[in-house]
Amino acid sequence: MDETSLEFDMVGIDAAIANAFRRILLAEVPTMAVEKVLIYNNTSIIQDEILAHRLGLIPIKADPRLFEYRNAGDEEGTEIDTIQLQLKIKCTRNPRATKDSADPRELYLNHMVYSKDMKWAPIGNQADVFADANIGPVHGDILLAQLRPGQELDIVMHCVKGIGQDHAKFSPVATASYRLLPEITLMETVEGEKAERLKRCFSPGVIEVENHGGKVVAKVVNSRLDTCSREVLRHDDLKNAVKLARVRDHFIFSVESTGILAPDVLVTEAIKVLMTKCQRFLNELDSTEME
After folding, report:
1. What is the pLDDT of residue 208?
2. Which helix (H) or strand (E) holds 105?
3. Which of 124, 89, 126 is nearest to 108 (CA)?
4. Each residue of 147-179: pLDDT tens digit?
5. Where does this polypeptide localize (predicted)?
């Protein structure tokens, strides 16, 4: 595991359960994202709709567990269900630019609008409650628009809690996938030049050659690193020497977070969502039996 990605094994379960975790991670773990964009001034060349769409897709670093879902009919948000962000920026000429310069970075000030220009505007008591939360975009270097002198943006954004099932912008992961653990078995002893060729058929680290009493012999070292290519089947003298299979109940999960929550927290939240679904199902069964 590192800051944004996590790889773990899930062993001894059915494929349906593994897929349930994958789908919950993609579509049912909630996050905060820009839902309403109030554009007071936009004199850039980007249309309002395109700009609003770009703003909506920016990951917002805010813990969704600390907020409630916003009611459908609410026009104005409250401190428990809405985060307000502001983007107010104007492009001007740089008075210190040299006369013969043609570089926009030198000629203009604020000509590149980045996500770091989106500033948090606390509602109600949020400034005290989330004083240490550092609410704002996860990444500050996402380019939103390019301006020229005289052009400006004056925008207010409302971020609400939602799930990826409603819109992809709420999905907390960049990718969530799994694969079955490869299983490679040597059916016979492979020696000499054949062993070297066999090693080259697989990803680095899967098969190594060892020296046994002057003979070079192939050995399976780490089948986990195999990418399940079928290169070995192209060699007539090798294809019967190896058995390629997969362990049916051993899943290798890869979870890559967008940075809103740590990947291990996302997996924990996905487990909680599945437990809630199971409990709801059991409760429904109990109530049906009583009727």
Report:
1. 92
2. helix 104-107
3. 89
4. 999 999 999 999 999 999 999 999 999 999 999
5. Nucleus
DSSP secondary structure letters along 205-257: TTEEEEEETTEEEEEE--GGG-----GGGG-TTTTTTEEEEEEEEEEEEEEEE
Q: Specify the DSSP element, H or E, that contains 86.
A: strand 83-90
Q: In this structure, what DSSP letter does residue 25 have?
A: H
| CATH number for the segment(s) 31-170 | 2.170.120.12
**pLDDT, tens digit, for every residue of 23-56?**
999 999 999 999 999 999 999 999 999 999 999 9
Residues linked to residue 120 through DSSP beta bridges, in sequence order: 85
pLDDT at 2: 92
pLDDT band of residue 112 (cuts 50, 70, 90) is: very high
For residue 100, is pLDDT > 90?
Answer: no
pLDDT score recorded for residue 73: 78
At 38 the three-state DSSP class reads strand
Nearest to 138 by CA among 175, 177, 169: 169
For the chain, domain boundaries: 31-170
Burial of 223 (0-12, 13-18, 19+ CB in 10 A): buried
By DSSP bridging, strand 215-220 and strand 60-61 are unpaired
Q: Are 84 and 123 in contact (CB under 8 A)?
A: yes
The pair phi, psi for residue 117, each rounded to 5°, is: -80, -10
CB count within 10 Å of CB 102 equals 7
Q: Is 281 exposed, middle or buried (0-12, 13-18, 19+ CB in 10 A)?
A: exposed
